[in-house]
């Protein structure tokens, strides 16, 4: 975990607002580390500039509070919503993730108008087509 920290994955304005403990359980830290080591760090290295995690790990209470689906990979520490800070660069980052052929499971950007990107890692599942 060169460019990202567990603290970034726990941070949430919604969790703070509602006093939700969003600490990553020890048993899920390997999932977060795999997402970072296999997908996010290589993406950040190639991008050459900071990438912000806007939503990382979500405990069940936080996931419900933000309207996340019950099957969200955020619940397992396998997903992150990320941004460069603007839609134009997010679109470029989305393309870069594809060009690098990173082992993500999901890569979603268009659905959100590239306001952010959702990216996940699950080595047990086939890569989904980007959206």
Textual characterization of the structure:
The chain is an alpha+beta fold and 131 residues long. It starts with 5 loop residues before the first helix and ends in an 11-residue tail after the last strand. 37% of the residues lie in helices and 11% in strands. The chain has a single domain (6-120), classed as Muramoyl-pentapeptide Carboxypeptidase, domain 2 (2-Layer Sandwich). It contains five helices and four strands. A four-stranded antiparallel beta sheet has the order 1-2-4-3.
Topology:
Blueprint: H1 6-10, H2 13-17, H3 29-47, E1 52-55, H4 60-65, E2 79-83, H5 87-99, E3 107-108, E4 117-120
Identify the notable features of this structure and list them briefly.
4 strands; alpha+beta; Muramoyl-pentapeptide Carboxypeptidase, domain 2; 4-stranded antiparallel β-sheet; 131 residues
